[in-house]
Amino acid sequence: EVQLVESGGGLVQPGGSLRLSCAASGLTFSTYWMSWVRQAPGKGLEWVANMNQDGSEKYYVDSVKGRFTISRDNAKNSLYLQMDSLRAEDTAVYYCATNWKSGFWGQGTLVTVSS
Amino acid sequence: QTVVTQEPSLTVSPGGTVTLTCASSTGTVTSGYYPNWFQQKPGQAPRALIYSTTNKHSWTPARFSGSLLGGKAALTLSGVQPEDEAEYYCLLYYSGTWVFGGGTKLTVL
Q1: Contact A47/B55, CB-based, under 8 Å?
Q2: Which end of chain B is more exposed for a tag (fewer CB within 10 A), N or C?
């Protein structure tokens, strides 16, 4: 059974940093493109970033470029999202997901940016 | 700023058929946009339904189908069930990045 488990969410002040993790099991993690998707409270889904299998390709939505960094450790079957210079508008549930053809999603972790 | 547009809400009767659409501000949606469709129920994570325009996942009920229709991506539900009441999101590809539509709230009434 494929499982994606996000962690690392919490309350952080504006301007602060947070690192999200996504632990994958039940799949050959190193063969998958991976993405982060977020959902602000009561709002729709927003694709945030993705990266290819070896990390040589990374893409970001414009609103997080220069502030967020996606990375992975294939030896640990883990995906990460380093979030710096956080803003109130980054408040959301953050989901990790495999490539869309495979279609697996985690249950999400809540990030709240507030003073 | 690329915008992907979906109907904000639709209502369908049980057993009926409904088509949700997904339009791009850049023009006609083609297979090269690799349209995806997701279902989300309150308090749950999204669930993938369709990838690359027409392809179903192993868990996707047969009553769901994807297509291109009138310059848009489309998701058709045939023989709608009460449990299909949910928010539906499309996702399109733009040169390395992806953009979700705003979602369609489907009510089964």
Answers
A1: no
A2: N
